[in-house]
TrEMBL record:
Recorded coiled-coil stretches: none
Organism of this sequence: Mastigocoleus testarum BC008
PANTHER family for the chain: ABC TRANSPORTER PERMEASE PROTEIN-RELATED, PROTEIN TRIGALACTOSYLDIACYLGLYCEROL 1, CHLOROPLASTIC
Protein name: Transporter
Keywords assigned: Membrane, Transmembrane, Transmembrane helix, Transport
Pfam families: MlaE
Record InterPro entries: ABC_MlaE_roteobac (IPR003453), Permease_MalE (IPR030802)
Record membrane topology: Multi-pass membrane protein
GO cellular component terms, A-Z: ATP-binding cassette (ABC) transporter complex
NCBIfam families: MlaE family lipid ABC transporter permease subunit (TIGR00056)
Family membership noted in the UniProt record: Belongs to the MlaE permease family.
Length: 257
């Protein structure tokens, strides 16, 4: 039974470490312990360096969603409402989730692998010898970078998804782009945009914290570094969907509960 239970216990330990790391990050931020130079470096990694796959995924997702939705709505003579359906589903949910998932796979895994390599090669122990806190030097710049850049990346991905959906609606269903955009404007409120930004901010913190925490708790050698990076991505994806579920209940279904 021990070999079966050990991975589960280790995962629970790592999850608990990630939750504790969140508290440590906020405590250090309140104390003003921020390395601006390293933060800017990681902002480039989490933003411009990771934007291409986000744009591709959101663009094609917008086209796919529009094609599937338009086909059904056209049968009921509700083609003018395609943009509204697109706004309610894609803009509120799909865009932030897709963007965060891509960043988790590209940036979160890199965080886990980089810090994990430092852990197994005792570079983090060297930071302690130099009286440098790894949280200040390694974790906080990455958390700030993801929290700031993921909302920006998500909004750019959202615009790309809308452009893709508008293209598909015009190309395959002859829906005028002005009608498509007007329908989106009617259904998508300003509060929805703020919610998307809030979700992206929270997802950014999840990506950075889990990636860093899984890296800091890596033990062994090169094989374990790769395993930590993979586990960090999978855990982040699960956390994103779980958090999005509760945020949706809280923000969109709160009065009904």
């Amino acid at each position: 039974m021990q070999p079966i239970e050990k991975p589960q216990a280790w995962w629970i330990f790592r999850l608990g470490s990630a939750l504790l790391l969140v508290g440590q990050v906020w405590l250090h931020l309140l104390q003003g312990k921020v390395c601006l130079r390293r933060t800017v470096e990681h902002m480039v990694t989490a933003g411009p360096a990771a934007i291409s796959p986000v744009l591709l995924v959101n663009g094609f997702a917008g086209m796919i969603f529009t094609i599937q939705t338009a086909r059904e709505l056209a049968q009921f003579g509700a083609s003018n409402a395609i943009g509204g359906a697109f706004a309610l589903a894609f803009c509120r949910e799909l865009a932030p989730i897709l963007s965060a998932s891509i960043i988790a796979g590209q940036v979160g895994s890199a965080f886990a692998a980089e810090i994990g390599s430092m852990r197994v090669t005792e570079q983090i122990d060297a930071l302690y010898m130099l009286k440098t806190d790894p949280i200040d030097y390694l974790v906080i710049p990455r958390v700030i970078a993801c929290c700031l850049m993921l909302p920006v990346v998500t909004m750019i991905g959202l615009v790309t998804g809308i452009a893709g959906g508008m293209f598909a609606a015009q190309k395959f269903y002859q829906i005028d782009p002005a009608i498509f955009l007007e329908s989106i404007r009617e259904f998508l409120a300003q509060a929805d945009i703020l919610i998307v930004l809030l979700k992206a901010f929270i997802f950014g913190m999840v990506v950075a914290v889990i990636g860093c925490s899984w890296g800091l708790t890596t033990k062994g050698g090169a094989k374990e570094v790769g395993a930590s990076a993979t586990a960090a991505v999978v855990t982040t994806w699960v956390a994103i969907f779980v958090i999005d579920f509760f945020l949706s209940l809280l923000l969109f279904e709160g009065p009904a509960l």
